[in-house]
Write a structure and sequence with these properties.
The complex is a heterodimer of chains A (353) and B (190). By secondary structure, chain A is mainly alpha-helical. Chain A is built from eleven helices and two strands; from the N terminus they run H-H-H-E-E-H-H-H-H-H-H-H-H. In chain A, strands 1-2 form a two-stranded antiparallel ribbon. Chain A starts with a helix and ends with a helix. With 190 residues, chain B is an all-alpha fold. In chain B, 65% of the residues lie in helices and 0% in strands. Chain B is built from seven helices and no strands. In chain B, helix 1 packs antiparallel against helix 2, helix 2 packs antiparallel against helix 3 and helix 6 crosses helix 7. The longest helix of chain B is centred in the middle third of the chain and has 25 residues. Classes of the chains: A mainly alpha (353), B mainly alpha (190). At the A-B interface, helix 4, helix 5 and helix 11 of A face helix 3 of B.
């Protein structure tokens, strides 16, 4: 298709994805977090504002917008302003390469098929890790610009933690790239039509899940936000919409991490571990929304898992966290790569079989 | 004026100006942030040259890890009251004029070199610069170079660890901010 049509289609895709991940998911996640934490702690969550407390998030947003926007007098003004923006930008950019559907012509509506993925890059998940590594700056700048030693310590701890677990995050996914023969997320999802990679890549999943918890600063790795230790860490001095920006960035990061887990290990938009949409006889060109909804359900489950784990497990101490990341996860990741490479080599060259 | 040309102009200009701003800032943290802008612009230029893997690695490692550590150091080791205005850096700034002349000379030489070379748009292969292509180059064509470079990196890591190692029964060589601050026990029971 020509450049203009491509541009328009991409804009529509971006608008839809932003609306769903930012508008809808963040809103629902706040409600889910409060209701699930209430359930785990044997109490009711918000149930007064709207049915089942669903409008509570809206009330919170309105409150945050109307709050006084205080800037500490000694804060570094420019960095104080851009800190939340720098935190939000990578959170939204990472979703660009996640495939939430296959090619579709919307049931014959369009002349040429459109892929339900904003950008089909051949560097695939390397792009996600690259952009995720930029999200460290938001935390660091936010912590430093507040001119508050608790914030600075929170920011530095958060960034040290995120750098440490970035390595484990990237290394744990290398076996998946080996299995699929490509780092392109479209290829990885397409290769899972016969078998989801959670089965051969179970070790990778076991290593990737904690690393993604650490990257998004969620419990059990949420020392940077530990209430009892650092006030609120790097976003102590941010009020109203600036705090909302950090908050949204954290939830958007969670959505991306869940989407990545689903894409890499749970087949993306594929139907069942051993059954694809085509094999089940469902025409996903016409019923294009079915894979998308299925993908959304899977992502929703993992976001629920994030909340569930948060309210169940106590947080790590800092030296335990560092030891886990450097001395335990990285060697395990390297061992995992070797095991997978050897297994694939044996399988493909047929030496011992 | 194709889209590619417009992107190159925009990001080339951004790379050039941010590089200049790196050396013009008084606050070292501002310099570091301008350097990040320069690195990201360079990554975009890599993409325009079909070197996708290189662009991803540039952002992942250079802008995402190395610059973070730069900023760590700048934030933690604050120079305090030493600024150019107080004369703390006179031992450097007295060479300002000769340095400027030398930089102009180097620029002139580079301009001469670039204008004397015939650049041509070489046709690139279908999957040039993709992960598959670079990986294949690493493991087939440039295998020994790749492995030797890895060993070099390993040597650098071991050297860094040895240089910053602490004495278990004495005082640490520098300040210690991390977890293993000289205590004889391993980092706590797990």
């Amino acid at each position: 298709m020509n450049v203009f049509a491509f541009f328009i289609v991409s804009l529509v895709k971006i608008a839809v994805v932003l609306a769903v991940t930012v508008g809808f998911s963040v809103y629902i996640m706040i409600w889910v977090e409060r209701k699930v934490s209430a359930g785990i702690q044997d109490r009711k969550g918000p149930n007064r504002v709207g049915p089942f407390g669903l409008l509570q998030s809206l009330a919170d947003v309105i409150k945050l917008v109307c709050k006084e926007d205080s800037v500490p007098s000694e804060a570094h003004r420019f960095f104080f302003f851009i800190g939340p923006m720098v935190a939000m930008l990578p959170a939204f950019m990472t979703f660009a390469v996640i495939p939430f559907g296959d090619v579709t012509t919307f049931g014959g509506l369009l002349s040429s098929p459109v892929r339900l993925q904003i950008a089909d890059l051949n560097i695939g998940f390397l792009y996600i890790f690259a952009i995720a590594s930029l999200s460290i700056y938001g935390v660091m700048i936010g912590g430093w610009a507040s001119n508050n030693s608790f914030s600075l310590m929170g920011g530095l701890r958060a960034s040290a933690q995120m750098i440490s677990y970035e390595i484990a995050l990237g290394l744990s996914v290398v076996p998946i790239a080996l299995l699929a023969g490509s780092v392109d997320l479209r290829d990885i999802v397409a290769a899972q039509s016969s078998l989801w990679y959670i089965f051969p890549g179970i070790l990778s999943f076991i290593l990737f899940l904690p690393a993604s918890f650490a990257e998004t600063n969620r419990l059990p790795f949420d020392l940077p936000e530990a209430d009892s230790e650092l006030v609120v860490g790097y976003h102590t001095e941010y009020s109203s919409m600036r705090f909302a920006a950090f908050f949204m960035a954290e939830y958007a990061n969670m959505v991306t991490a869940s989407a990545l887990i689903v894409t890499l290990f749970f087949g993306g938009w594929q139907l069942f571990p051993f059954l694809s949409w085509q094999a089940a006889g469902i025409d996903i060109d016409r019923y294009f929304f079915l894979p998308v909804l299925w993908f959304a359900l899977k992502v929703g489950f993992f976001m629920f898992l994030y909340v569930w784990v948060r309210w169940t497990i106590p947080r790590f101490r800092y030296d335990q966290l560092m030891r886990l990341g450097w001395r335990q996860m990285i060697p395990l990741c390297l061992l995992n790569i070797v095991i997978m490479a050897v297994a694939l080599f044996v399988k493909e060259s047929g030496i011992f079989i | 004026m194709t889209g590619e040309m417009m992107l190159f102009l925009a990001f080339g200009l951004m790379a050039a100006t941010s590089s200049v701003m790196v050396v013009l800032m008084r606050n070292p943290l501002h310099s570091a942030l301008w350097l990040i802008v320069a690195l990201v612009s360079t990554a975009v230029i890599f993409v325009l040259l079909h070197a996708h893997f290189l662009a991803a690695v540039q952002i992942l490692l250079y802008a995402g890890a190395i610059m973070v550590l730069f900023i760590f150091v700048i934030m933690l080791i604050h120079q305090g009251e030493k600024t150019i205005a107080t004369g703390a850096f006179d031992y450097l700034t007295k060479y300002r004029e000769p340095a400027f002349v030398a930089a102009l000379a180097v620029f002139g030489v580079l301009v001469g070199v670039f204008f004397s070379v015939e650049f041509f748009a070489s046709s690139t292969a279908e999957n040039f610069g993709t992960v598959k292509d670079v990986g294949r180059a690493f493991l087939y064509d440039y295998f020994w170079v790749f492995e030797t470079t890895s060993v070099l990196l390993l040597v650098a890591i071991i050297g860094a660890v040895v240089v910053t190692r602490f004495e278990k029964h004495g005082h640490t060589p520098g300040g210690s901010t991390g977890s293993e601050s000289g205590l004889p026990t391993d980092g706590g029971a797990s």
